[in-house]
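Input/output pair, single chain:
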Amino acid sequence: MSYNIALNFEDGVTRFISCNEGETVLDAAYRNQINLPMDCSDGVCGTCKGSCHQGNFDLGEEYIDEALTDEEVAEGKVLTCQMIPASDCVVEIPAASTLCKTGNADIGGTVAEVNLISPTAIELKVTADQDIGFLPGQYVNIQVPGTDETRAYSFSSQPGSRDLGFLIRNVPGGLMSSWLVGQAKTGDKLTLTGPMGVFYLRPLVRPVLMLAGGTGLAPFLAMLEHLKAKGCDQPTHLLYGVTSDDDLVCVQALEQFAAELENFSFKTVVASADSVHPLKGYVTNHMEDAPINHGEVDVYLCGPPPMVDAVLGYFREQGIQPNSFHYEKFTPSLAAEAIA
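Output:
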């Protein structure tokens, strides 16, 4: 038996490795040619210290208190030289990937479909040449064919499949948008680099509030696909805000998630005063069903910078400090700025 271990480095790079039963994460990483920080490898120095808040594992009793205290263990700290996984795990490594002699992985892919699902949004489906591991919410850089330029897009599809999906804003005159709308065809080759980002779904241990703006809906579609496969036992509410009626996409998919996930609900909001949509304004105007619980909530927020800033301001004004707050800002032509 083996387990999939996601190594999240502090520069946003994620690498997946296979860890055999009874094998330490450090040994598995070295076997996969990833040199995690280490000195003694005996649980004495603490050089290989990281964090794990997702998955089951055994640390044994061979390490000394100077390397890892009981307080640190209670906080989720681990020594990768002692950590033996008992399930799939996500391990945070406090070092840049380049210092561990690894980095972003390039994956080939083939265009399967390009669909203009609204005047302002494009659905891109890609078949990867190999298995690509990613955490629900992460993104990749996709090279624009015929150029050296790349664009960052969040996965909108379920992890664990070579069939990848992306929800892309149709930017007039945009480099990738122009290629997708005017030139792309089934069978075209693409190069994807990643996965990357610290914006990903953590284990559900309390209510969750998801806030999406425009094509910032994409990572939440991946998260919901993951919850559909793994289960959703906490109240999970999504507020999806757009500028105009044309920007509102994937509503049928959200309705399907709501029908299949017992604890999931959502609302859609349109900002334009000319909209015929029943809920107008901004997501912060429609928080009455949000499971905020005086801060006992995990918040995930992805959208354009003005929306992210407005939501952060809303929580400050309300005097609410969520248990955890994960957000990602994006602009049409720049790589995502991810902040955990």
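The CA atoms of residues 39 and 47 lie 6 Å apart. Confidence is low (pLDDT under 50) at residues 334-340.
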